[in-house]
Write a structure and sequence with these properties.
The complex is a heterodimer of chains A (174) and B (726).
Chain A lengths: L1 H11 L5 H16 L5 H11 L5 H14 L4 H12 L5 H8 L12 H12 L1 H25 L1 H7 L2 H7 L10
Chain B lengths: L4 E3 L2 E3 L1 H4 L2 E2 H8 L6 H10 E5 L5 E5 L7 H16 L6 H20 L1 H17 L3 E9 L4 E10 L7 E12 L1 H5 L3 E13 L11 H10 L6 H19 L3 H8 L1 H8 L5 H36 L1 H4 L9 H63 L11 H30 L10 H5 L20 E12 L4 E11 L2 H4 L3 E9 L2 E9 L7 E16 L9 E15 L4 E15 L6 H13 L3 E9 L5 E7 H16 L1 H85 L5
Parallel strand pairs in B: 9-10
Antiparallel strand pairs in B: 1-2, 3-5, 4-5, 6-7, 7-8, 8-9, 10-11, 11-12, 12-13, 13-14, 14-15, 15-16, 16-17, 17-18
Classes of the chains: A mainly alpha (174), B alpha+beta (726).
């Protein structure tokens, strides 16, 4: 986990594609919305592991959003139930439900489908916001931080020194 | 060194040594730089030139790299640009898919080994002994699961199997299984065996055993503990409250006397005599002996004088000597006489007291004798009510012991079924408590016909055939589920088992629906069941052997109250009792018992959830025994009366002998004392008589001696007075 956090900060301060971080944050949000203990979540997680994106950003987003999304559970559940009750989709759901192994995804659970729907709905806004943040950070904040005395003091702390002395730390070393 | 060019002493990455057209430069270099400073640096290092075709080409000017740090930074930027690739890592995804396929393949190949491990672990964990499986086949495509030759060892007897299953065949619903549900229309379990021999020990390794013991709930079942206490109470109740001892008491004359003793007068007076007279006897025995000795001595000393023949005394000196001896003996006798007199007078004072006590004792004995004779007349009839629950008591013991053995299984079974119900609120684990933020469970929407719980076993067919033990059984269990409310059907159970002449069957329902008033309602029958109930050595309690038939019902109420009702009949009954006293009661009792060939009893047991047990056993045989005993005992009333009289006489005689010996002893002492005095008196009389005789003799002798002198003197006087007297 520490490795991923370090990687995130390294990428944030390096010439990594901002999309790597933005997609990671959006996917972190998506997986935070979908309840665990079902095949769908496992499948999505597995998929994320094979997409080129910033894993550090993904895990940080997943953990942070996991603390937040339960506050939206009522809405998630309502959305999920609304989707499951959506008549035009009923034949699809019925076919899926009657297909072996699909049930393991627990797609018929209002929280699972609601989480997936809400995660997908919020994917693009989350991606766009993250992208903007990375761009803003790199353009505005990062140069200031690089020159900041406080940052310099912090980076000279023994523990921080040990962290940043690790390879591939990126822009902070400039 | 192949991917870099060394100019001005600095290494330049290959990415920057290439010549790029304007578009390429923008796309491959500048668009991949997201740090403004880096972009500025690279732009400052790249220079443009024209090729032979006049196109503008961009390339790095190594001479522009000022220092080593800048060269390093350029190299790092090149690396960062190189890292920027497509979103999907096709190779990795391919490898992952291969890995998944390999996993699926491994699961398919090793599915049976995995299933064997899972089943073995589960059964070993449940029974605490080794589990062996001959073959196992888990086929997802056929949606079938089969186990052949399953054997679970007995933890307490590792060389025996607790049970075995010839074949277990489960046809499950694959679709439901992939929904996380176990739904099976048919489960066949055939070839069930019990207690078969094992070739190898079925004991688990010490580590596994410790694990199993740790899992076991050490807390004793309160109902089982209550049943144990009840069994002890029932056993002791037979001997104390309702046993034959109570009947025997009524026939024992000694017991009657024991009850009357407090009202008798003689014991007190006999005790008084025993306390006082022996000491008086002891006191005077020594004194009396002393007196006797003194008397004998005195008498012996005077023996010569007593034998003296006064007629043989011829001379006066002899007479004077005899008289002197008599006087001396008379003087010496006086002290002995005084002693005898004083002693006799003293004893006579105590003799009066002893006489009074003797008189009192005689009166008391007379009164007691009359009372005890009247006691025998008071016996009009005998009560046999106390002995009438003998057979019921035997059945109570049997019932309590049976409940103690089988109730835990009933309790465990119902508890297990209740625990597996989905609707129950499960205890939150520490792990779940540690989850800071819990998600809502959501609603499961069902599409199509399915609305099944997570576990549904619609029909379980059971069959057992063991040629060796002769056990043959079959049964069906329907609608086992973990959510009875959802399935909305109670579990139906129908089991039948026969082994030898024994046949047992249970048919009923286990209703775990939340609105059900009875959790279990089952009817049972058991026939040809050999029963052997020992008397446990309690006097008068018969041992019972025979063939039992029980027809009854078990009802477990919603609150956990268990009610068992059963009509019990023991045919070909053999009731035997060990010999006890009085023999005529034993004889009557034995005859009644031997005439009983069928024992009927109605049993009712109500066990409340807090462990309180209410047992009720009613048997006709008890009434029959009571009637027979009553008749026999009525016939014995006169014998009982005679026995009481005999015992009363014996008792009176005992009492009399107790005090009369002491009185006789004292009387003897008193008599001896009186005899000594009388002997002294006789001796005194003898001496006085001898004295008188000697004195008379002396006079005679004196007269004889004085006669010639007197004659002479008379003559002389006559002669002298002749002239004076006319």
């Amino acid at each position: 986990m520490f490795r991923y956090i370090k990687k995130f900060f390294t990428s944030l301060n390096a010439n990594a594609h901002p999309g790597d971080i933005a997609h990671a944050a959006a996917l972190g949000l998506l997986l935070a919305f979908v309840p665990k203990e079902n095949l769908l979540w496992a499948f999505l997680f597995f998929l994320v592991m094979f997409i080129r994106l910033n894993k550090g950003a993904f895990f940080i987003a997943l953990i942070l959003f996991s603390f937040v999304v339960p506050f939206a559970d009522v809405a998630t559940e309502a959305i999920g139930f609304a989707v499951l009750s959506f008549k035009p989709l009923e034949p699809v759901f019925t076919a899926m439900y009657q297909t072996p192994f699909v049930g393991l995804t627990r797609f018929n659970n209002s929280m699972v489908l609601g989480g997936l729907a809400l995660g997908l709905i919020l994917y693009w806004p989350a991606y766009a916001l993250s992208l903007r943040f990375v761009s803003w950070y790199r353009a505005k904040l990062q140069p200031k931080l690089a020159k900041s005395k406080i940052v310099k003091v912090i980076t000279h702390l023994p523990i921080i020194k040990q962290i940043i002395s690790a390879p591939d730390l990126g822009g902070f070393r400039k | 060194m192949s991917d870099t060019k060394k100019k001005s002493g600095f290494k330049v990455p290959k990415l920057f040594t290439k010549k790029y057209t304007g578009t390429q430069y923008e796309k491959k270099i500048l668009k991949k730089l997201f740090i403004a400073a880096d972009r500025k640096l690279i732009e400052s290092l790249f220079v443009s030139s024209k090729d032979s075709q006049g196109r503008e080409l961009f390339t790095i000017d190594v001479a522009q790299i000022k220092d080593k740090a800048q060269a390093k930074r350029v190299a790092a930027i090149a690396k960062e640009i190189a890292r920027q690739k497509g979103r999907f890592n096709i190779v990795a995804i391919a490898l992952a898919l291969v890995a998944v396929l390999a996993l699926v393949l491994a699961l398919t190949v090793f599915r049976n080994a995995i299933a064997r491990f899972a089943v073995t672990s589960a059964l070993e964990g449940s029974f605490g002994a080794k589990c062996d499986i001959a073959s196992i086949d888990c086929n997802l495509l056929d949606a079938s699961f089969r186990i052949d030759g399953l054997e679970v060892a007995n933890r307490k007897s590792p060389m025996k199997n607790l049970f075995g299953v010839g074949r277990l065949d489960l046809a499950f619903d694959l679709l439901e299984l992939t929904r996380g549900k176990v739904v099976a229309d048919n489960l066949e379990i055939t070839g069930i065996t019990w207690n078969t021999d094992r070739k190898a020990s079925g004991a688990l390794t010490p580590a596994k055993q410790r694990k199993f013991e740790k899992r076991q709930n050490a807390k004793p079942n309160p109902v089982v503990a209550a049943l144990k206490a009840e069994a002890e109470k029932v056993t002791s109740g037979i001997s104390v409250d309702s046993g034959i001892d109570a009947v025997k008491d009524q026939l024992d004359p000694v017991k009657y006397l024991e009850r009357e003793k407090a009202a008798l007068q003689s014991p007190a007076i006999v005790e008084k005599i025993s306390a006082t007279v022996p000491s008086l006897s002891e006191k005077w025995e020594a004194k009396s002996k002393e007196v006797r000795s003194e008397v004998d001595k005195t008498i012996a000393a005077g023996k010569k004088l007593s034998a003296l023949k006064v007629s043989s005394i011829d001379t006066l000196p002899e007479a004077q000597a005899a008289l002197s001896d008599i006087k001396a003996a008379s003087d010496s006798m006086k002290s002995s006489m005084e002693l005898a007199k004083e002693t006799t007078e003293d004893i006579s004072t105590d003799a009066k007291i002893v006489k009074e006590l003797s008189s009192e004792a005689e009166k008391a004995i007379k009164a007691d004798s009359a009372r005890l004779k009247a006691l025998a007349d008071t016996v009009k009839g005998l009560n046999v009510a106390t002995g009438k629950d003998m057979i019921s008591g035997v059945f109570r013991t049997f019932l309590v012991n049976t409940l103690g053995a089988y109730y835990p299984y009933l309790d465990q079974g119902v508890s297990a079924l209740k625990t597996m119900q989905n609707g129950k609120e499960k205890k939150q684990s520490l792990k779940s408590k540690s989850n800071a933020i819990a998600r809502l469970p959501g609603r499961n929407v069902v599409f199509g016909k399915d609305a099944l719980p997570r576990l549904v076993l619609r029909n379980i067919e059971l069959s057992a055939t063991d040629v060796k033990s002769g056990i043959k059984g079959a049964g069906t269990v329907q609608n086992i589920t973990d959510d009875a409310d959802r399935l909305n059907t109670p579990i139906a159970v129908a089991l039948a088992l026969s082994h030898g002449k024994m046949k047992e069957s249970v048919k009923g329902a286990v209703d775990l629906r939340s609105k059900a008033t009875e959790t279990v309602n089952a009817a049972f029958t058991a026939t040809g069941y050999p029963v052997s109930i020992d008397s446990t050595g309690v006097s008068g309690v018969p041992s019972l052997k025979g063939s039992m038939k029980a027809v009854g019902s078990i009802v477990v109420a919603r609150d956990g109250t268990v009610t068992i009702r059963s009509d019990l009949a023991v045919t070909q009954a053999s009731l035997e009792v060990k010999k006890f006293e009085p023999s005529f009661v034993y004889g009557a009792y034995r005859d009644v018992l031997s005439s009983i060939k069928t024992v009927d009893a109605d049993l009712t047991a109500v066990i409340s959830p807090d462990g309180a047990i209410d047992l009720s056993v009613d048997s006709d045989v008890d009434r029959e025994i009571a009637r027979a005993l009553k008749a026999q005992m009525a016939a014995q009333i006169e014998k009982v009366k005679a026995g009481i009289r005999k015992e009363a006489d014996k008792y009176i005689a005992e009492q009399q002998s107790k005090y009369s010996s002491e009185i006789a002893r004292f009387t003897d002492v008193y008599g001896k004392s009186q005899k000594s005095l009388e002997d002294m008196k006789a001796y005194e009389k003898t001496l006085n008589s001898k004295k008188a005789e000697v004195e008379r003799k002396m006079k005679e002798l004196t007269a004889e001696k004085a006669a010639p002198v007197l004659e002479k003197a008379t003559e002389s006087a006559s002669k002298a007075l002749k002239g004076f007297l006319p």
